[in-house]
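BUG-342 | component: ligand-complex export | severity: low

The export step for KG4 jobs runs without errors, but we want the raw record kept on the ticket for reference. Input record follows.
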Amino acid sequence: QAPLTLLGIESSCDDTAAAVVRHVPGQAPDILSSVVEGQTALHAAFGGVVPEIAARAHAERVDHCVEQALAQAGLGLADLDGIAVTAGPGLIGGVLSGVMCAKGLAMATGLPLIGVNHLAGHALTPRLTDGVAYPYLMLLVSGGHCQFLRVDGPQEFTRLGGSIDDAPGEAFDKVAKVLALPQPGGPSVQAEAMQGDAKRIRLPRPLLDRPGYDLSFSGLKTAVLRARDDLMAGKGGLHRQDRADLCAAFQTAVADVICEKSRRALTDHPVATFAVAGGVAANTEIRARLTALCDGLGVRFLAPPLALCTDNAAMIAWAGIEQFRARGADDMALSARPRWPL
Ligand code: KG4
Ligand code: ZN
């Protein structure tokens, strides 16, 4: 196996990103650069990601991100061995910007082009950061994803289960909205929850009574809305302590559901490592609970650094390296796919 240096490009949601990763077999991979340009400010006024705005921003910024990534790595295109790009799933306008940029570079240089599934990028991150051996279990929990994956190889993923409605990050964001807390909701709900009593308000634990690893968060969000209205009735507003208690109850309910489904997945699929990725993996209660769960089961719990848990292009470059070795390159017919199950 030869050493490989790949450029990665990611533009499937609301971050435009480019990175260069080098891997010498037998050594730990080296992230030579990782540039992420968020679009939070562009979408802030709309209470969610607006696809047209995202697509335009990706088209405008992707070349710049690539230049930055190469400059920070101190490399030129001639030093690369290939170009990996997120080819889906995601907002099609953004994915297209990345794929067209990658195709242009591949055509101009003759370098191999590798189309990567965004979820494969997240799922292979534990190998980039910690050299975790196959097989392992992965929990992806972000604003857009929620699934348990069993990872057996660079292209061998088994989806064990996932959310049947909202992703947990989406639920955190919606709860923040109905409680008039700032976006993104995760960090602000977490901060409130620290001042609250999780036991005072009872919220449901959706799908816990059903077998399997599927999760559901939209009923929880509705329950928070109802509890808020009950707390406000006749008071003209939501008391600070009531809001904190509601945030604590919600966060603990999400943690309970995620922990119980994780416990089942780990019991049915004994593996040495359980890894998380996605913005929700930043939640301190969820992290602490999953750490305790894994300690009890004798499984290694791994939460990669947050910058590599959330959307980035280093994970795409790395997945590109692993998949290029496994299956070679794609051709110019590579298409951008809004839907692309693993
Ligand atoms: O992975 P990410 O940056 O982007 C994608 O969704 O792809 O995840 C963002 C999500 C948001 O919904 C945000 O509210 C949530 O992760 N989040 C959190 C925390 N920090 C970010 N949720 C719970 N607790 C947190 N501390
Ligand atoms: Zn993602």
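Assignee comment: Attached the raw record above. The beta strands are 4-10, 15-23, 30-38, 82-88, 113-117, 136-141, 146-153, 156-162, 273-277, 300-302.
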